[in-house]
Design a protein that fits this description.
Layout (H helix, E strand, L loop, with lengths): L19 E2 L11 H20 L1 H4 L30 H7 L4 H5 L6 H4 L7 H45 L9 H17 L4 E2 L1 H18 L7 H18 L7 H4 L14 H26 L27
Antiparallel strand pairs: 1-2
Length: 319
Amino acid sequence: MASGDPERGTKNRGHNTSFYYVETSDKQWTSWLIPMFVVANIAVFIVAMYVNNCPKNNLGFYGSCVAKFLGRLSFQPLKENPLFGPSSSTLEKMGALEWNKVVHEHQGWRLITCMWLHAGVIHLLANMLSLIFIGIRLEQQFGFVRVGIVYLLSGLGGSILSSLFIQQNISVGASGALFGLLGAMLSELLTNWTIYTNKIAALFTLVVIIGINLALGILPHVDNFAHIGGFLTGFFLGFIILLRPQFGWHESRHLPADARVKSRHMAYQYVLLLVAMVLLIVGFTVGLVMLFRGVNGNDHCSWCHYLSCVPTSKWKCDN
């Protein structure tokens, strides 16, 4: 946002990241949770615009409201918010992530509410398109419970890391959760490596998409710490809850008992699960303890701020 509030948004859209699973015995789920998440995000944005009420609350310092025909749903002046959305004060009132309120005013719920808010129509549209492309495919393969867990915990992980490093501005957006889904896709491919065809191409495609989106996060006013935190959370969760049986296990169940030689999972899958679980638990524990003790992550990592914004001759990074 123009006011300096980092929005979270994946920017690489519409890529087909599907690859081929060589067995067809897994159940295909009907995707309903991800569409509900999309509807919920849109509904929250409409409520935020209703609360914002630009015609009544705009003081005129940045110009007049945009799209006045929408009445109280009209947008803030573009000089204030170029993404066609509400004011910073409205986002803060609605539950945007703000370090001071989380730590000193005991409003930890903002770690969750911020992921349902968006800075503007452009921000919302970009994130919801990404959620549809990424989330529906995952929900069809793994069901709403596991995908819902990845989405929500990744959003929380992104909020925690964001709060540790961005403590002067507010932050909103669902892309921490979206990066979690991307991270889960990557770890799911790695842990279920033996059952896929075209896996090298799939791995390359995923790495390129993730790399481009993380690279775009170094632009100003984009909360790349939320992206990184969400990605790491989803990456670890994928090893834990997105395991598939190894190739041939389904068929081996129908063989005589003395002929069954295949176990459900391979040894390396269990090793990855254990390592990921330890790292995830340690990461969340350390992050939450540091956050609620008021620790500034930048004091312990002098270069980490470059992960979210790299100053150039064209822009500055004020946080």
